[in-house]
Design a protein that fits this description.
Chain lengths: 296, 271
Amino acid sequence: MNYKRIKEKIYKWIFTVLAFSSLFFLVGIMIVLFKEGIPIFKDAGFFKFLFGAKWYPTYEPPDFGILPLILGSIWVTAGAIIVCVPLGVGSALYLNEIAGFRQRQFLKPIVELLASIPSVVYGFFGMVIVTPFLQRIFNLPTGLTALNASLILGLMATPTVCSIAEDALSYVPRAFREASFAVGANRWQTLTRVVIPAAGSGISTAIILGMSRAIGETMTVLMVAGGAAVIPKTFFSPVRPMTAAIAAEMGEAPMGGDHYHALFAIALILFLITFIFNIIAEIISRRFRIKLGLSG
Amino acid sequence: MKKLAVMMAAGIAAISLAAGTCFAEKIVMAGSTTVLPIAQKTAEEFMNDNPSADISVRGGGSSVGIAALIDGNCDIADSSRPIKDVEIQKASANGRDPVAHIVALDGIAVVVNKSNSVSKLSKKQVRDIYTGKITDWSQIGGKPGKIVVVSRDTASGTFEAFGELIMNKEKVMPSALMQASNQAVGQIIGQTPSGIGYVGLGFMSGELKAVEIEGVMPSKETVISGKYPVSRPLFMYTNGKPQGVLKEYLDFIKSKRGQELVETQGYVGLK
């Protein structure tokens, strides 16, 4: 009896520790990011760092302006949204509302399979196939542009958007649809006036999580975005998103130097952006569940 | 349960013992990706001759290698640039004494797509292209077309050498495509008709065309004779004078056979 009780207690402890380990790692990472990132704000000045237009980290004297990098990330993410929202939400609508049972059994795993392709493979595809293609059809000097990165990132974020949006659609109670049909609405009207508004916040969550997937992606943008730290003016110009700058430069930045701290500060800003995205997504999805009468 | 613990303890003890015995012959190298192929090839051959030696080779970049040497995390730091004064100060503060060994020579070839008709450039022209003063191939006698400038990342050893040998410390314009490796530069120039880039001589391929700089084509001969202006020595740094296996290995690289291996990797031997 006593032995059994102790055993139970031990198990309880083990699982408590496991459950809290995520929190532990999250806090640990945040502490490191702040500790290693803050020094550059003192040295270079917070606003000069955030809104400086020149990124010359290794020159004497160095310029640590990350505005081109932030804008690079924003451009490719915005572009990715333009690609992945129609693709992801469209496929979710088809899967949940139109496709028959067998089609769904077949298509859904395929969309999810898209998520399992390693990002370096996407990057390779972008570099070898999409780059020369864009170069030819738009007659560009180089195909390594924000557009290229947007297309590939959009494709990569599609499974995320699709599966979360599909979940949201499937949560819309059947009674909603039945009531709509009962008052004489056809399928299209039901879809656009009833189902989509009901699942709206769930779909927004899907899009925001897709954005946070796109903005954090590294390998692909390193390979296809071109890597030029300029403030982008069109989708046809090469960009250097924040993740690409960190990945390309961290290996060579001397530990403890200004450049090193600057890269940590970029990581910190990136982390805050995705953190905010995720919190917004969480709030919206909680409201959505309450609205549909599901547990919060 | 108890049995398992005992077995695990025994296992750990055995592993650490085994690690202890080969520790004596172990060499850890880290640093420049430019020196990496030389380090790998010579380490491989050296270990074939001396089965008791265990050399592990890592890349990371010149700065990383030297930082690791200063911190005592490696025995040899590969570097494509001479050690900086700041680094020497840090090293002596840590009680370390970096000693340079030149292991090979490397030329940096300025490359264009093989369809490009331009075959000669002066140092000043290359500099003007990289600072953005020259933006179109027609300005330097080529077919009209916007020049796509490709550079290595600002932290790489090749970039620093290029900066020193060509740029006179002027800044590469921000709209240059900054790439993380020699291979990436080669790949882009290979598929960009209006591109210009620079790679180590060891990374030349059929898709690329090297241009003459100040009338000199980069080649083994012009690098050794010192005529080709964009060339540099490649270093390995040790802490103090090398001894034991470390010395044998470095002697091996500098030997005739070692230098032949250097050349098979596309670099220029010392003799």
